[in-house]
Amino acid sequence: MRQLTLHQLKVFDAAARHLSFTRAAEELFLTQPTISMQVKQLTKAVGLPLFEQVGKRLYLTDAGKELLATSREIFEQLSLFEMKIADIKGLKQGQLRLSVITTAKYVVPRLLGPFCRRYPGIEVSLQVTNHEGVLERLTANADDLYIVSQTPTNLDVQRYAFMENPLVVLAPRDHPLVNERNISLQRIAEEPFIMREPGSGTRQTVQKLFEKHDIPIKVRLDIGSNEAIKHAIAGGLGISVLSIHTLALEGDTGPLAILDVEHFPLPRHWYAIYPSGKHLSVVAQTFFDYLQAEGREAVDLGELMKLIRH
Ligand code: PGA
Predict the structure, then answer these.
(1) Residue ranges of the alpha helices (H) in the chain?
(2) What angle do CA 66, 68, 70 make, to 5 degrees?
């Protein structure tokens, strides 16, 4: 047992979280046979199977569940140790691990610029995924801070709303509705709709709005990327609802226009969150404080809002 390595535990943790060797391999940038091999060695060291396959699905055995709990404790202890060392070294060195939803990638890098210039020794890792992906990482305690636009209801978290993140309805610039005012939701629902993928927070918000008004929408296609959706709109495949920040670089000179639809812009915020019991490292706490103090200044939201013609 004493021969098992931290690397094996890391591999096991990813396989246990995903209950899939393929997804664990993707996450760790390893091959699937490498994952199998590491799990096999670990199984040998433990002396009992860690996973069992029932039909096509993989499950953790009781031994697997025990090992998962133990390996989480080991990693938790190690990161506490890392934090203490970082405290001793101050902010000269350290890691900041962020996990953010897809819309935040239009803003967080701009916030990180001045932060990293102020603390040049800090190494940052930024994971960009959809709402569901960020919550998965939060549940697995994979990062220091998380940025979402809907805070989870089933987890106790600390949160701070650092910037507005309104949703708008986007259409091609030559769309007949572009010059209309106060378009009804009903009218919008007649257009072919391009929707973000299941698991996306944007999608959830749009679905909730239309369900609340009892209006069915015609989803023509699901696309898992804000940028690809913008191209699909420009290509005439339909209209969509996205965060206004997705227009950060093109402004009103690009091929897309914001429609004036009732209930829109739909007000939302980005929240920086972390689990309530978590001890933030000095670096993470400093970034959290920085977001509170200076987050709002990183983006000229007024300029973006000017794109909405009312
Ligand atoms: P999503 O979240 O990437 O899960 O759609 C984005 C948002 O809610 O702003």
Answers:
(1) 6-18, 21-28, 32-46, 62-89, 108-118, 131-139, 185-188, 201-212, 226-234, 282-294, 301-305
(2) 70
Residues near ligand 1 with C-beta < 6 Å?
101-103, 130-131, 149, 165, 196, 200-202, 243
DSSP 55: T
β partners of residue 228:
none
Centroid of ligand 1 to alpha carbon of 132 (angstroms): 9
Is the four-CA dihedral 208, 209, 212, 218 of positive or negative sign? negative
- Kindly tell me if the per-residue pLDDT of 301 is higher than 90: no
CA of 224 from ligand 1 middle (Å) equals: 10
| Interatomic CA distance for residues 4 and 248, integer angstroms | 48
Residue nearest to atom 9 of ligand 1 (CA): 103
Structure tokens at 245: 């920040």
Taking the complete model, does pTM exceed 0.90, yes or no? no
Give the mean model confidence (pLDDT) for residues 80-100. 82
Q: Whose CA is nearest to atom 2 of ligand 1?
A: 201
Ligand 1 center to 242 CA (angstroms) = 9
Q: Which of 304, 296, 297 is nearest to 272 (CA)?
A: 296
pLDDT exceeding 70 applies to what percent of the chain? 99
Label residue 99 left, alpha or beta by phi (over 0 means left) and psi (-120 to 50 means alpha): beta
Please name the residues in contact with 190: beta carbons below 8 A apart, sequence gap of 6 or more. Answer: 218
Give the number of the atom of ligand 1 that is nearest the alpha carbon of residue 104. 9
